[in-house]
Amino acid sequence: MLSRQASHALKALLELAGDPQRWCSTHALATAQHLPEPMLEQLLLQLRRAGVLEARRGRSGGYRLLRPASGITAAEVMAALNHPFQLSASPIDQLGAGGAAEPEPAASAQVTAALERRLHQALLRTLRDVTLEDLLFDLRSAEAAQASAGGLLLG
Fold this sequence. Notes:
single chain, mainly alpha, Arc Repressor Mutant, subunit A, two-stranded antiparallel ribbon, 7 helices, 55% helix, 5% strand
């Protein structure tokens, strides 16, 4: 469901969220997360323009979060990347324009289109509710589970 760009951007943001005061170069982020550096540079620039990251030039420069991870939502990241979330064709497109030339859609088509709208709304609601801090907690839980037989933390 996430594009490759969105996935790469989130991985880089999680790396930055792990130590929010540290400036991190594109090269260091790409290396740490095994991401293609040229693509990552473009994603980081988009995130900077959108006010998610700040950048500093120079030897000790790089990128870091502009705001706390708790204030950055997945929806904001997707918007910064111009990532249009669609489950499939728009439910309205599936029903047609509704003009006189088109026949009335079957009841089953109306029901499935309504379901598509509900799924789309739920997805958008989730993206607005999930913060980078939530994803960082999930990341740390997954890392803890891999490091020991203790299992995942639930939160």
